[in-house]
Write a structure and sequence with these properties.
The structure holds 2 protein chains of 2 kinds. Chain A is of the alpha/beta class. Helices cover 36% and strands 20% of the residues of chain A. In chain A, helix 8 packs across helix 9. Classes of the chains: A alpha/beta, B alpha/beta.
């Protein structure tokens, strides 16, 4: 990447925890740490996400716009529709962290498909599933895949567990209610505490996961699905929906994936896990330790950084090739 | 005249199209036609659903107040509240969607035990094997009866002449419909195809659209049964999409193109293949759609539905736990 290139990464000013925004910050950090100038471009001057520790380079649309001639915009998939027609001479790369959200922010006002516009040159995705989705939908465009990582200093293996089941209710809340109600009425939750992880900082989330024996995943249509990966890293027996994007890692023998909507099987698998914790604690410990190791080995910050840098190298050659609509 | 045991089918007062309400009325009609003293029970005097034709027997307060030998039949979502009413009166749950079993439950102590665990609740009627399995697992030992739904054979008839038209209902998983249709649009495969969203239509209007549509896309999710894909099959549509789990008894690979939940790419690429195949040969899949129509119209006929309902209530009325009819 030539030295005067600057990568602008627009981001919504969300104060609530959102893994996608966290990953935009991470992307910018990796680029800056490796000599490629990048900054998060928030909507309001002075805004910065504070629910996780960071000293990421942050600015605002007002301070940065219009872009310089040598700038590149790395636009999240949900904002891509609004960037059609903006500064057409500036090359744009879509950071599509969830292929299932590709059309979610299309409106009557913003209805021109960015993936078919000549200034949108490539897309970065975070799973094979998303890559398949976008290659099918828009066959002609380069789609690069990077691997996410988790912070091993925060999400680390903890062998000593409470009889505690953690879950995040953000998606498929109704399925969570069904699974937990079935378990309750089958009297299977006796001795267990159920913790809903909601509006927590990254550090608080990690602490709950480290002390929880079981994590229930209610993911659906995810680009990747970070929470089950974080839970596996912390040594939780992880059961539930892989959200498709997470199928790469949320698999046997490391986890217990459940087909979407199969509520009774989900509840039965949870019961089975509780019985295993009771009857075969050493086997469970070994299984969770191996799952954690698998996550840390496969999705380390080093691998993520390597993927990001390799991707931008490929993007550079894409940008050096003329493209027409 | 000696006292008779009455069956009160408690029903929500929604005067907007809702398949579940329609089926409660149908249940009362069937029982009534077979000599049972069955009534839809509404709370508001004079209320009757008007969005479909009916002469269903209805009772209002005070006639609908049950005696201890009458039977209250409650919809699954309201059973959490209704099971605490009219103590001593035997109760049956009409669970038309197991995935809604806990919709109106709470963590409050009043919801313990669950309706399905209370001795007054003698059993539950379900409408699919999937719902039966769900409730069997959730409440082991609870008595379950299964009935088949039917479709109106006069309305949902096989029509071989089709327009190049895709119909779908956006009620559930509208975001999935947007994705599938947007992908097809981006790939340029729906240029010459009419896309019809079925929404706020009467049963007759829905049937007319289905009869002329070549393809029906199902965006069902966590259904007790899932009527629309069955209606579409009866009309001769090539049915592609989600079976909503409750519909997997009839929405098989032999009868259509079931797609795994959340598999947007699989969904879109199947629609594309079917469009290409039918463009090449308009009669492609004719055998499949004809067989599927025959199957659903035969297996899910009004006669079978009636027989199931009558048999179920004959069994319920023979339960030894039912209190005797006394003055």
């Amino acid at each position: 990447m030539s030295s005067n290139v600057r990568i602008l990464v627009p981001a919504i000013d969300w104060t609530r925890p959102a893994g996608g925004v966290r990953k935009l910050y991470r992307h910018v950090d990796v680029l800056n740490a490796n000599g490629i100038e990048a900054l998060v471009m928030h909507q309001q001057p002075g805004f910065r996400c504070t629910w996780f520790e960071n000293n990421t380079r942050v600015s605002s649309f007002e301070e940065v716009w219009p872009p310089r001639q040598s700038d590149i915009i790395l636009v999240p998939e949900i904002l891509a529709w609004q960037f059609v027609g903006l500064s057409p001479s500036t090359p744009k790369i879509i950071f599509n962290q969830n292929a299932y959200q590709t059309f979610a922010w299309r409106t009557d006002q913003y209805n021109v498909n960015p993936y078919l516009e000549p200034d949108f040159r490539a897309t970065i995705v975070v799973s094979h599933d998303s890559q398949t989705y976008l290659r099918h939908a828009f066959g002609h465009q380069p789609v690069f895949r990077i691997r996410y990582s988790i912070d091993p200093r925060v999400f680390y293996f903890e062998p000593v567990k409470k009889r505690q089941i953690a879950y995040m209710p953000r998606k498929k809340e109704k399925d969570a209610a069904q699974v937990l109600a079935i378990l309750k009425y089958r009297n299977a939750l006796a001795g267990y505490e159920v913790i809903k992880i909601e509006d927590k900082t990254e550090a608080q989330t990690a602490q709950i996961l480290r002390e929880s024996a079981i994590f229930l995943s209610f993911s659906t249509q995810e680009g990747w699905g970070l929470p089950p990966m974080e839970a596996m890293a912390c040594g939780c027996l992880t059961i539930g929906y892989d959200g498709r994007g997470g199928a790469e890692y949320m698999k046997e023998p490391f986890a217990t994936p459940i087909p979407p909507e199969d509520v009774p099987r989900f509840a039965a698998a949870t019961e089975h896990a509780m019985r295993a914790i009771q009857s075969h604690p050493a086997e469970v410990l070994e299984r969770t330790r191996r799952a954690s190791q698998f996550i840390h080995d496969s999705y380390s910050p080093e691998i993520e950084a390597r993927d990001i840098l390799a991707t931008w190298k490929q993007i550079e050659s894409v940008l050096n090739t003329p493209r027409t609509k | 005249m000696p006292p008779v045991r009455r069956i009160f089918l408690l029903c929500p007062e929604w005067d907007v199209p809702a398949g579940g309400v329609r089926k409660i009325y149908r249940h009362a009609d069937v029982l009534s036609a077979h000599g049972f003293n069955a009534y839809v029970s509404h709370h508001t005097r004079g209320f009757r659903c008007k969005w479909f034709e009916n002469t269903t027997p209805i009772v209002y307060p005070p006639e609908c107040f049950p005696r201890t030998f009458d039977i209250m039949c409650m919809p699954e979502i309201y059973s959490w509240d209704l099971c605490r009413q009219a103590p001593g009166v035997p109760k049956i749950i009409f669970n038309q969607n197991a995935y809604q079993t806990f919709d109106c439950s709470s963590d409050e102590a009043m919801d313990d035990p669950a309706p399905y665990m209370r001795p007054e609740v003698l059993g539950t009627i379900v409408v699919s094997e999937d719902s039966r399995k769900y409730l069997q697992y959730a409440f082991p030992g609870h008595l379950l009866f299964r009935i088949r739904y039917s479709i109106d054979p006069e309305l949902f008839v096989y029509e071989p002449k089709k327009k190049r038209q895709i119909a779908f209902m956006p009620r559930k998983l509208a975001a999935d419909a947007v994705q599938v249709l947007s992908i097809l649009e981006a790939r340029g495969v729906t240029k010459d195809v009419e896309i019809v969203k079925i929404e706020k239509k009467t049963e007759a209007e829905t049937a007319a659209i289905l009869r002329e549509s070549q393809i029906f896309l199902s965006f069902a999710m966590e259904e007790g049964w899932s009527l629309p894909p069955m209606e579409a099959m009866a009309c001769g549509c090539i049915v592609i999409g989600y079976d909503g789990r409750g519909g997997r008894e009839y929405f098989t690979k032999q009868n259509g193109f079931p797609i795994a939940a959340d598999d947007i790419v699989g969904f879109a690429s199947t629609v594309e293949s079917v469009l290409k195949e039918t463009e090449r040969d308009p009669l492609a899949f004719r055998e499949m759609t004809h067989r599927a129509s025959e199957f659903v119209r035969t297996e899910y006929s009004p006669a079978n539905e009636e027989a199931d309902i009558v048999r179920t209530w004959q069994q319920i009325l023979q339960l030894p736990s039912l209190p005797p009819v006394v003055i």
